[in-house]
Amino acid sequence: xxxxxxxxxxxxxxxxxxxxxxxxxxxxxxxxxxxxxxxxxxxxxxxxxxxxxxxxxxxxxxxxxxxxxxxxxxxx
Length: 76
Hints:
Blueprint: E1 3-6, H1 8-17, E2 23-26, E3 29-35, E4 45-48, E5 51-58, E6 66-69
Antiparallel strand pairs: 1-6, 2-3, 3-5, 4-5
């Protein structure tokens, strides 16, 4: 699977433009949250906005960038 590399400025711009699409910050980690009723039973489940869902986490790497899935390229 291909990845998109975001530097500090691109990552902050990406998250601020895509809050409505479920992206937010958890410290220096970019999180994509998607509602789903079975989230409470999953390892990546997360309770947010009074409902369960799934969270995909994108950690900062040693070069100071984030690598996110290329399926989010349309959101950049």
